[in-house]
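Our working data are protein records whose layout never changes between entries. The record below serves as our worked example for the rest of this section:
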Amino acid sequence: MKMLFIIPPFLSVGKKSTHSPHLIPNLGIAYMASILKNEGHEVNVIDALAEGLSRASLINKIAVVQPDIVGLTASTYQIYDAAEIAKEVKGLSSEIITIIGGYHASALPEQTLKEFDSFDYLVSGEGELTLPELLKAISSGNNDMLKDIKGIVYRIGNKIIVNPQRPYIDVNTLPMPDFDEFNLSLYKPFYTFLIRKLRELPVMTSRGCPYDCVFCFRSQGHIVRYKSLQSVIDEIKRDIEVYHINQILFTDETFTINMKRTEAICDALISTGINKKIEWGCETRADVVDEALLKKMKRAGCRVIYYGVESGDQGILDHATKDLKIDDIKNAVKWTKDAGIDVYANLIIGLPYDTEETINRTIDFAIELDPDAVSFAILTPFPGTELVDMIKKGKGELKIIAHDWRDYNKQFGRALELEYLSIKQLRKLQRKAYIKFYFRPKRFINMFKIVDIRALISYFLHRL
């Protein structure tokens, strides 16, 4: 069958889009492309964000491909856009089957299919095994096969059928992701140097997160599943030789959660000489690093670490069940800087029980830590998170003020406010945070050394 994956553009009328300056190829689609090709399917990918496609130009490209199946992926913020494109696809031919996957679909599988009739099927959770089974059932025309496919939601007449969830897969059974259908020249790392052209690809070494932060939806489960060290190294070598990359983003939710394994990965990068060919970044927690590991990560090519700092107030961190201490954050940031690795700190404004005082403490804490770059998000009640349950139970002094998924963007803060802090006040504090942090002489000058100027302009225009 001819399968077309689409990453939809921002279409929402009257809604400001993020225009994210950081774009990398979708790793989940790359894995599924590899598997489907191995099974004899023809695979195409259109990333409308990377290509900067309008609705009309995207539809024209879809018409040229003439797919049998269109698969779309979407965050909560983009689910309306995906539904609009699915509707346009149906306008091209009612015979084209549309499938939705991704974060939002996994968080609200039944509701998503109820809400958007332009989707024929929904794949919940990891799709690498589910999608091939679904395509086999569709191509056979035997609807009885659908009932045995775990992880799908579908319609029979006006009835929506929700099959049991598929168990999490063994990541070592996955083939290498296939990026052949992506135009890699269009993607842009946010964290970069002006004088150097970077080509970045994502690499997954594990899936799953054992922590219970109230604002996160753990779509990949609580149990961490690790890829073998050899398969990780082989994939990076392939990416260098075939795709000519010089930067990697490790997509693990907590890259250093197993510090001994992280050290083994670093040793392999050093012993193979990969550390001389690429640099890389990762995301992790402040309480699962130490000085020795960070120094080794630097030798292995680590250039930037993204830390989930979230708040500068210990009580607020505890209410968010972050299970992280302020001293751990201070130590990790200091050790990372001492190792010569850049620090990117992610913080959240409007966490449960936040006040103007605690938010100002968070702003001051960010300045005290003095990372190389920061993000100040406004808390958003994404579906599937413990946060939504808290709000329903009247906890956290929080209330949802928007029910349009297009308002669920953590940089714009339109979906949630606190009992004693309006959304207007939260956004004012967010602007204050960015201005106080970045418009200091030291940090302002440094921005131009580490961030692509075009990305920087876009970042401030669309977030402040």
